[in-house]
Amino acid sequence: MKPAMTSDYKDIDFNQLKRGGFIKQQGPDLFVMRLRSIGGYLTSQDLENIARLARKYGRGEVHLTTRQGVEIPGVRLADYRELIAEIENLQLLPGACGPRIRSIVGCPGREVCPNGVVDTQAMARQVDQAFFGREVPAKFKIAIAGCPNACTKPRENDIGLQGVVYPQLVVDRCSLCGLCQFICPGGAIKIIDGRVTIDRQKCCGDGACVASCPTGAWTAGARGFVLYAGGKMGRRPRLGDRMFNLIPEDGVIPRINSVLQVFIKYRQGNERLADTIERLGSGGFRELILSLSREEVAAGGRE
Amino acid sequence: MAGNRATKRLDITGDCCPITFVKTKLALEEMQPGEILEVLLKDGDPLANVPRSLKDEGHRILQVQQVNSDTYLLIVERGKGE
Question: What domain of life does the UniProt record list for this protein's source (chain A) (predicted)?
Fold first, then answer.
């Protein structure tokens, strides 16, 4: 049974409401409460709490969103204040809707996935802390993948980060077993006349050689993220353009910031980043990013 | 050739993940540290994944030979663990 409507239910904190996550659904006086995860992880305690909230305020069911969030449908406006207070209390995280930076999607990353070459979860937490919920001219989605398999579809997002590692050979550890030349996805490694060679143009940064090398001869040279920008789905889908080939972990937040600054400055109307980049050209957009001053990038940080 | 010292041979060319690795792991568990296992496997996922997982468990790939266009022979030395 639904709790009875309290008399002061119209006394709603609009600032709270404005932050998003409470979305009108089909049917009179019915709303969806959207919760987010960071990079797709929820604790078992979170899950228990969400289950309880769904029973108490909704219909005892949840919907899993495409951005790794959990929505509770069937919530009444009268219950909003009480629900949001409980959410805060339980340290659950409300999601976003409208022209804001949406939940950060992330794969498990190298902690769990054998293919992962970067810590996507730590990066997801950093990006969430720096950007989540920020008001921008149009909805803005960020996804993080731990390797070039790109399971979280970084190129379908306004900004996509994808982990890469470029290998370095320690020659005297190499046993010439031959494994790396057979597994290199780009066909970059060849053993010629008893010498291991690598064609850097063909290296995709998968780190397969580093992960598999039996003697540890292949080591991680440079590790970081590729940044794609300007992806979106919907009616006119567009894959993001490869804007930066290797951003070290500590350079990612300023780089995202600079993409946002150029977008905010040059967008027309409420177009998505994809449209702005299409209009200015990928190269042109990139030039504008590089010409931003350090101050402009810093000023784009969280207020 | 390391292959001549092999005490066991395993053919996982008809298997796919995760059976490929599980069979290899179980075969190695029945062997003594330092013994040699030969594993016949297909390229693609098996070749990309099985050697990496073996390394993770402390075994050592001594040699990889291409047998034909899509089949490889791994020569594995059983590690000291377990």
Answer: Bacteria
The low-confidence residues of chain A, meaning pLDDT below 50, are 1, 302-303
Question: How far A190 CA lies from chain B's nearest CA (Å)?
Answer: 14
The whole model's pTM is what?
0.91
At B9-27, the pLDDT tens digits run 999 999 999 999 999 999 9
Among the listed residues A166, A199, A165, the one whose alpha carbon sits nearest the alpha carbon of residue A181: A199
CA-to-CA separations, A117 to A1, A59, A109, A263, in angstroms, rounded: 49, 41, 7, 29
pLDDT one-digit tens code per residue, A79-137: 999 999 999 999 999 999 889 999 999 999 999 999 999 999 999 999 999 999 999 99
CA–CA dist A248, A219 (Å, integer): 17
* B2-77 CATH choice from 3.30.110.40, 3.90.1150.10, 3.30.200.20, 3.30.360.10: 3.30.110.40
Q: Which residue of A has its CA nearest to B55?
A: A214
Domains and CATH numbers, chain A: 14-94 (3.30.70.3340), 101-156+225-299 (3.30.413.10), 166-223 (3.30.70.20)
